[in-house]
Design a protein that fits this description.
The protein is of the alpha/beta class. It is built from 10 helices and 12 strands. It folds into 2 domains: about 130 residues, Rossmann fold (3-Layer(aba) Sandwich); about 140 residues, Rossmann fold (3-Layer(aba) Sandwich), CATH 3.40.50. The protein has a 6-stranded mixed beta sheet.
């Protein structure tokens, strides 16, 4: 047999903390990046319960793990155990990326940046546009902070529970001075016009792919671009209706991809050339949408 020497005493270790994590694509993305860039590192998933979160983080530090991604259900709960939180992490109140520093880990949120980079890639702009965001959870907060920072003409939030929309608007306005309002889902379905609509809820995700937070076909005639942060199924009912109405459409794969890229760049303090990413993007896209 041949000696396996791809991992050695100098190999840097990175990983993912979450629960459950059996179906994560993160190891495929980060280990592929390491191979493309010829970096001596390995990325592994860790299934961590909420009860063991603090101990897992301390153990990661003692083991010399250089960086971690954090996913559901730990993005908010891990913050009290960090040295500090940077940028969007403070605004969103959640982190998905940890970088080792002297004495602990620093938290970042690359979801907002990942969404923005994916929008740019698709030619969808936010500046001076009327933006409607559906939802009021963590993904909606990332989308709203990103949109507010890009100086939209107006930011409109809608959600099944309006009290959560109100909390989100208050949060956005504490960081950004932008025109903002909230409307009911019924009003959004029947009246609202927008240049860009970003759907951030889990409605329509597998195995409930026959559902959509917007049910009226006429709605899609009043928007120009439709974004659904779901990528399984690849085309949700929301995206199909938007495409049939002639809208520019985008699912959540680009956000998933680029938030991972930004995490890798933060860990390694580099900027990855676009030409290094094209083949990996295509391979992962084919894996998700065969």
């Amino acid at each position: 047999m041949n000696l396996i020497d791809t991992v050695n005493g100098k190999t840097k270790v990175y990983g993912l903390m979450g629960h459950p994590i059996a179906h994560t694509l993160s190891p495929s993305i980060h280990n592929s990046l390491a191979k493309i860039l010829n970096h001596d590192l390995i990325y592994v998933p860790f299934d961590v319960s909420t009860n063991g979160l603090k101990e897992a983080l301390n153990g990661s530090y003692e083991l010399g793990i250089q960086g971690l991604n954090v996913t559901i259900p730990h993005k908010e709960k891990i913050i009290p155990h960090l040295l500090e939180v940077e940028g969007y992490g403070n605004q969103i109140g959640a982190v998905n990326t940890l970088k080792r520093s002297e004495g602990g880990y620093i938290g970042y949120n690359t979801d907002a940046e990942g969404l923005l980079l994916s929008l740019i890639e698709e030619g969808i702009t936010i500046k001076d546009k009327k933006v409607l965001i559906i939802g009021a959870g963590g993904a909606a907060r990332a989308a709203a902070m990103m949109a507010a920072k890009e100086n939209p003409k107006k930011l409109i939030l809608t959600n099944r529970t309006l009290s959560r929309c109100e909390e989100l608007i208050e949060g956005v306005l504490s960081f950004y001075d932008v025109p903002a309002q909230m409307v009911s889902l019924e009003t959004a379905n029947n009246q609202i016009e927008a240049d860009v609509c970003i759907q951030t809820t889990s409605v329509g995700m597998y195995p409930n792919q026959e559902e959509s937070p917007i049910y009226k076909d006429e709605f899609f005639k009043r928007i120009s671009a439709a974004v659904d942060l779901i990528y399984n199924p690849w085309e949700t009912i929301f995206i199909k209706k938007a495409r049939d109405a002639g809208c520019r459409t985008m699912n959540g794969f680009g956000m998933l991809f680029y938030q991972a890229i930004r995490a890798y760049e933060i860990w390694n303090e580099i900027s990855i050339p676009k030409d290094k990413l094209e083949s990996l993007f295509a391979i992962l896209k084919d894996k998700l949408n065969p």
